[in-house]
Amino acid sequence: MKPAARRPLLLCALAAAAALSFLLVAPPPPLAAHLSTLLAALPVTSPYAPRPKLLFLLAGQSNMAGRGLAPTPLPPPFRPHPRVLRLAASGRWVVASPPLHADIDTHKACGLGPAMPFAHRLLGASPDLVLGLVPSAVGGTRIWMWARGEPLYEAAVARARAALGAGGGALGAVLWFQGESDTIELDDATGYGGRMERLVNDLRADLGIPDLLVIQVGLASGEGNYTDIVREAQKNIRLPNVILVDAIGLPLRDDQLHLSTEAQLRLGDMLGQAYLKFNSSTESRQ
């Protein structure tokens, strides 16, 4: 190609680069939000990735995946920490940075959930820990969709096994926040308790951890008229090593369904306290 012929191509390339740089420096609000999500999901490696980790499976629906709005700057409990890792959808360990479920719960815009404040609460008690978060929650799901053999259940078990095999470690607990969608139909609400107990038993059997701790979050809201029935079922799970952290009364967003950023921060701290208390009582009995 002659030099004169290259000039139009060069000018086009320079113009495209200038346009992209403008968008990155001062994008319009909708695009800014989209770019923020994409940048947050970019994998960032950590020197702690090969180390054994204390693992936590994050499961349930949208309030676990996170719908809290991200303020600028992020409050410290939501910020990345080199000792808090996330198992990406690709199966790689990366530094955890919200939104944690951006590559898992892909049909909705994810935001802030309880897992980062939970992790920071644990690090505050044991600064030398390396934590591995395993996001598996998907918004708008009912508990029957988490039954053994269903895609959500099988994917969560596969991710937990992958986490255990990718660098080693131990599964500390399942953090479970789900049930809002089971408040719509009476049959779903009345059958919730039995399905939840089967889910716990199946997870323990399939992961080979018969005493696996499950921390379930008591509903703060619901999509239908049967929230009280589901909440009562949550309170009456009679399996060992299943504990309830109640989110009732935590502030909600304007949709009166999803927890606010403040609520997610408080819930994460409550979950962390519950885990530490459970471990402390278990150790004292040994």
Automatic annotation (TrEMBL):
Any Pfam family the entry gives: SASA
Protein name: Sialate O-acetylesterase domain-containing protein
GO molecular function, one term: hydrolase activity
Keyword Signal among UniProt keywords: yes
Keyword annotations: Hydrolase, Signal
Claim: Cytoplasm is one of the keywords in the record: no
Residues in the signal sequence: 1-19
Every Sialate O-acetylesterase domain range: 54-277
